[in-house]
Amino acid sequence: MPAVQGTVVIDGYEITITNPDKPLWPDIGLTKLQYLERLITLSPYLLTYLRNRCLTTIRWPHGVGDTFFYQKNAPVPTPEYVRTEVLHGIRYVVADNLPTLIWLGNLACLEFHPSLHLIGSNQPVEWLIDIDPSREYEPRIGQAAAIVGELLQTIGIQSVPKTSGATGVQIYVPIKAGYTFEQLRSIGRFLGIYLTQRYPDLFTLERLKKNRGDRIYFDYLQHWYGKTLSAPYTPRARPGAPVSTPLTWEECRLLTNPAEYNLLNIGERLARLGDLIQQVPPQDLDHALAFIADARI
Q1: What pTM, to 2 d.p., does this model score?
Q2: Three-class SS string for the chain?
Q3: What is the mean pLDDT of residues 190-208?
Q4: 5-114 in CATH: which number?
Q5: Which residue ranges does UniProt annotate as crossing the membrane (predicted)?
Q6: Which CATH class is domain 126-295?
């Protein structure tokens, strides 16, 4: 049977949509067409964190639960409206506009993992700490993330928790320009040492999952030049179609199942709350860096 396809026109560009009825999340019956409709809803928020960055996507051509692969080099042929940039020999897609996002969605790119720096820069755009559980279901994850947020607040840093879209929570800190990845890592190391000493049964800095027991990994190392983390508002290729979703701190404290925020309900939430990250101003980290320097840890 020949493949079914059609076209849509977005911002003046004609985009071919193939197999619109293909289930991409079979467990909830979410088809490619429905996914693309939800990407359009997400686009004003998701594109904020993809623009002018090197983008890695994860593609699931036959839907969640089947084979997948990471896409770093831009797929070919590449339409005229898709910007690409070369970094370290890889020609990355730069998702600067809605046509690019829909083109990627049609290719069954279900996850979007941008660089932590902008094109042409080696400085971080924001600071992310990954609070990563060692168990598939971790009812303490929200409380653990809240402890980190409270600790940041004590050294004068406002932050926003967001679900990773998988099992964990990431602490997102908007930052002023000019800081280095090394400086952010030094703050992260300081916090990690404190937390593992203060809460030894809850937090660990052990990188090997098999050695963590049921402790939650305080991962400050993933935030580095050349690495990626899941973008705010990216869908995730997991059962239930979860979305990496910024939360209020009250929601975070009560969180037990990050997957409750998903493609089926994210539109209503965004219409009601907007982007919680944008409600926090870029943070000045000078005081925290000076405090750590004085502590000499």
Answers
A1: 0.96
A2: CCCCEEEEEECCEEEEEECCCCEEECCCCEEHHHHHHHHHHHHHHHHHHCCCCCEEEEECCCCCCCCCEEECECCCCCCCCCEEEEECCEEEEECCCHHHHHHHHHCCEEEEEEECECCCCCCECEEEEEEECCCCCCCCHHHHHHHHHHHHHHCCCCCEEEECCCCCEEEEEEECCCCCHHHHHHHHHHHHHHHHHHCCCCEECCCCHHHCCCCEEEECCCCCCCCECCCCCCECCCCCCEECCECCHHHHHHCCCHHHCECCCHHHHHHHHCCCHHHCCCECCHHHHHHHHHHCC
A3: 98
A4: 3.90.920.10
A5: none
A6: alpha beta
